[in-house]
Amino acid sequence: MLVVSVLLCLGGWISLYWVLCGVNGCRSYEWNCRLVTLLHGVLAVCITSYIGYVDGPWPFTHPGTRNTPLQISALVLSLGYFIFDMAWCVYFRTEGPVMLAHHTMSILGILLTLWLGESGIESCAVLFGSEITNPLLQARWFLKQTGCYGTLLGDVVDVLFVLLFVVMRVFVGGTMLYYELVSPRPRFFIKCGGVAMYALSWVFMVDIVRFAIRKSKTWHKRDQQETVAANGHEGKTD
Q: Which helix (H) or strand (E) holds 11?
């Protein structure tokens, strides 16, 4: 039954992609794929936040518990998407080894959780932390494509993305990993998967720190140019 559900979700994501390609024929394949990615990110965040904050249990206190029907549905939905996106990225060769490793670990982690029938709450928590920055990441790409990235909106998106990534993936993710490791309930392989995902977050973090440094230099240079331009203009009017 789970196999059928995953195949149906995979077919749904593929169908949505082809519909978008038909509707947005003037846009690139990557544009339409990123629309699918954006939709998945929003859905995943909404569903997993409801699971964690409303449906329960709380992932920090109940790791390793049996999967609930809602947790299974969320994981199956995301598994179908990750398989689709992994195949798309491999076919079009748009992503590097780090992102492909992230997709691979996500697929294997969800498969393991579904097969064991437990630790669904941790997987949903990881999914929430991984996808909560996704809409901002896609917004950044769309702003670049439409020529609006150099605006104030682009700066706001960048700042929010960096802050949200650091808070959720490093601090909240590190806390979640600690409770996962000290709890006797989760299986050994689940704990290993948590360590691997957190280590991958630090690989992304290195790139984000480099980006933040470049961005701050760009802002500083832009401020200097604006100051020089303003002073030059004032000098001519005196």
A: helix 2-23
3-state SS track over 89-137? HHHHCCCCHHHHHHHHHHHHHHHHHHHHCECHHHHHHHHHHHHCCHHHH
User: What are 7's two structure tokens?
Assistant: 């195949």
What are the tens digits of pLDDT across the range 147-203?
998 888 999 999 999 999 999 999 999 999 999 999 999 999 999 999 999 999 999
Contact between 42 and 135 under an 8 Å Cβ cutoff? The reply is yes
- Spatial neighbors of 136 by CB under 8 A, at least 6 apart, are 157, 160, 161, 164
Nearest in space to 190 (alpha carbons), one of 105, 129, 131: 105
CA distance 166 to 207: 12
User: For residue 143, what pLDDT is reported?
Assistant: 95
| Amino acid residing at 94 | T
Residue 152 CA to residue 4 CA, distance in Å, equals 46
**What are 101's two structure tokens?**
């490793």
- What is the rounded radius of gyration, in angstroms, for the C-alpha atoms of the chain? 21
Whole-Å CA distances, 114 to 43, 48, 87, 229: 19, 16, 21, 60
pLDDT tens across 117-137, in order? Answer: 999 999 999 999 999 999 999
| Cα–Cα dist 225/219, whole Å | 10
